[in-house]
Amino acid sequence: MTSQSTRDIILRAAKEVFAEKGYFSTTVDDVAERAGVAKGSIYTYFNSKYKLFVTALLQDFEKIVRKIEEKVGDIDRIEERILRGVDIYLDYFEENLFFFKSLFLERRVLIKESQEEAEDGFWKLYQRFIDQLASAFQIGIDKGEIRPLNPRVLAIGLIGGIDRILFSCLRKQEKTSPKENVRV
């Protein structure tokens, strides 16, 4: 097994265990057992449980941002471009609950640990995500399809609203699927 595949197996196992047990209840031993590796192997790649957790989250966030960038960049109609980006985000939510559970329900871990590397990584990815959406809004503004408002504020507002709906779905406060709630 290559070192990259071992690292990937560890990350995949960590995502599963963190999603099932949460950050505080998960131990490195739990992840090692799920991954089928020795505990020391995890520390070869990640110097702490926190680093493993943040790496897993950043990896998933990178996937979302990259997929949206790839799939919506060539769409001309503003409404279609935004809806396609939102659909990708919602599909990812339904397929990858680890990321969203961790992001919404374990946010206090990121705040408590407050490590600059993690904050910087999330911030850069978030900015790419917002920039992509703001660019779509700007095209709509330029074409006269959207009132001339600040496109970054529109992007942040849309993502913030969607995230609140997803959070409610995770907390079981909404009885319908995220897509049904967002399309309202």
Describe this protein's structure.
The protein has 184 residues and is mostly helical. It has 2 domains: 1-47, Orthogonal Bundle (Arc Repressor Mutant, subunit A); 49-182, Tetracycline Repressor, domain 2 (Orthogonal Bundle), CATH 1.10.357.10. The chain contains 10 helices and no strands. The chain has helices at residues 3-21, 28-35, 39-45, 49-72, 78-95, 97-105, 107-113, 116-142, 151-170, 178-182. The chain is elongated. The mean pLDDT is 82.
Quick structural summary:
The chain is mainly alpha-helical and 184 residues long. It folds into 2 domains: 47 residues, Homeodomain-like (Arc Repressor Mutant, subunit A); 134 residues, Tetracycline Repressor, domain 2 (Orthogonal Bundle), CATH 1.10.357.
Specify the structural class. mainly alpha
Contiguous low-pLDDT stretches (5 residues minimum) are none
Count of beta strands? 0
State the CATH superfamily name of the largest domain.
Answer: Tetracycline Repressor, domain 2
Counting H and I runs of at least 4 residues, what is the number of helices? Answer: 10
Query: Termini separation (Å)?
Result: 48 Å
CATH class of the largest domain: Mainly Alpha
Categorize the overall geometry: elongated
The main sheet comes to: none
The H/E string reads: HHHHHHHHHH
Question: How large, in whole angstroms, is the Cα Rg?
Answer: 18 Å
How many structural domains in the coordinates?
A: 2
Quote the beta fraction. Answer: under 5%
Portion of residues in helices? over 70%
Q: What is the annotated CATH architecture of the largest domain?
A: Orthogonal Bundle
Query: CATH topology of the largest domain, which one?
Result: Tetracycline Repressor, domain 2
Query: What is the typical, i.e. mean, pLDDT?
Result: 82
